[in-house]
What does this fold into?
Amino acid sequence: MSLPTPGEPRSGPSRDGRDTRWEQHREQRRSELVDATIRAIRTHGAGVGMDDIASQAATSKTVVYRHFGDKAGLYQAVADRIDQRVYRHVAAALSSMGHSEDLRLVVASTVEAYLSLVESDPEVYRFVVNRPLVDRPLADDPVEATTNRVVDLLLSAVPFAADARRARVRALALVGSVQAVADDWLSSPDRLPRADVVDVLTDLAWHGLGPMLAEPPAAPEPDTRPT
It folds into this structure.
């Protein structure tokens, strides 16, 4: 019988399989707790407390903290889930447009996709934006991360400018205006129908973007490096 050389893993059962199953169990449990948190937000509103969340999950706050570290960790996990939802929703809207030459319609579809999503789950949207559970600085801003991902989607679909720097500014201005309007729109007791808001935002964006998108490509900047 040959022996394994130093550093070579032994054959047969190892902790790797058990570790993998345990990690899968942990991820499944974390996902279930995020689901329960979202249900609690929908029931109790964006200002939901940890007691409400634990009750919805049929567990204790201690168990929740064991999986997420603290309240901010739970908030981050919920924000990540919503980020994925926003990304998929906007990506699906843009994908449905194919390679449409009607760029105004592409912009309108993006605005509609975002507003329809936040209107369908307003308390969850407020929870992510207002961060009621966050009591410490976050390493990364999840709202900013979502904004950047939507901007990247738009840049892949709309030729905002030949210059990549100008294109990003224009795409960011569009996404930022939609987010700002969404915050105010959701809080209004007598808000406009979503279709009207989409029209207003699209008109506003298009009257600014339309002429810009028709601009000829910018001339390359002269090379000022010393020869």
Notes: Residues 15-44 form the longest helix (30 residues). The radius of gyration is 24 Å. The chain has nine helices and no strands.
